[in-house]
Design a protein that fits this description.
With 247 residues, the chain is mainly beta. Helix content is 6%, strand content 43%. Strands 9-15-14-11-12 form a five-stranded mixed sheet, with helices on one face. It has a four-stranded antiparallel sheet with strand order 16-6-18-19, with no helix packed on it. Strands 8-7-10-13 form a four-stranded mixed sheet, with no helix packed on it.
Length: 247
């Protein structure tokens, strides 16, 4: 009988059925819609936060000594990362206006590392078809469970240090939850877009979308706990538009 709950969890995961997102391997590049770079425009987005910032939550790692020993000081979870009114870790993306345009996806992977029993980065975004690579830099064993609503879910073990696993997506979805059953405090969000017009705000709350064809667009700003805001904008040829979102 397995008395250690972490060992029991690992054993159950090793016997479970593992499902991956679709497609299982690298998809072929689509026939793309050309963008005229001589008329391309851009959008500069600024995202701010006003009000009381939620109190950070201390992460309890005591159930996994190998994780706790990596952090001599307490570790806190704070999804609302703000400084001087600027809001970081917000996904800014084109929600509507691209029509039937098709775009080539990058072949370089977006990498999420498991280091110190935490995900780095904790908020990530990529295109459909682009590889999403998980890395385990810890000596601790992890499993990676993804819970999309559109694609198939996935759940796989990464029991050895320096192991890597890759998943692909054929359909867009914003805010896919990722977690580890072995270490339940670990959490990340992954967003998948069908186009390259997205960015995650930096510490100054800024994001830039470049090489957009002129037209009318709906720009969205999504935050994992604060929700989503939308704003419409019309871009002229070679235009440089600006949008602001307040949470």
């Amino acid at each position: 009988m397995l008395s250690n709950p972490r060992i029991a969890t690992l054993a159950a995961l090793s016997l479970g059925v593992m499902a991956c997102s679709e497609p299982a391997g690298p998809p072929p590049q689509p026939v793309v819609t050309p963008i005229d770079s001589t008329t391309a425009a851009s959008i500069r987005a600024r995202v701010t936060f006003a009000g009381k910032v939620p109190e950070p939550i201390e992460l309890n790692m005591r159930s996994a000594r190998g994780c706790a020993d990596l952090h001599p000081e307490p570790v806190f979870h704070q999804p609302v990362v703000t400084r001087d009114g600027a809001l970081a870790d917000v996904l800014v993306y084109i929600k509507n206006g691209l029509g039937e345009r098709v775009f080539q996806f990058p072949t370089d992977p977006v990498v999420i590392d498991q280091v110190g029993c935490l995900y780095k980065p904790r908020v990530a975004a990529l295109m459909t078809g682009q590889p999403l690579e998980f890395v385990n830099s810890d000596t601790e064993a992890h499993n990676v469970r993804g819970k999309p609503n559109v694609a198939r879910s996935w759940n796989f073990m990464m029991s050895r240090q320096k192991t890597r696993r890759t998943v692909y997506f054929s359909k867009p979805e914003v805010g896919i939850q990722v977690g580890c059953d072995v270490h339940p405090w670990m959490s990340a969000t992954v967003s998948v877009l069908a186009h390259p017009y997205f960015a995650i705000t930096d510490a100054k709350g800024l994001a830039v979308l470049s090489n957009l064809p002129p037209g009318e667009y709906t720009v969205a700003a999504w935050h994992e706990t604060l929700g989503e805001r939308e704003q419409k904008i019309t871009l002229a040829a070679k235009g440089a538009g600006e949008v602001s979102f307040a949470f």
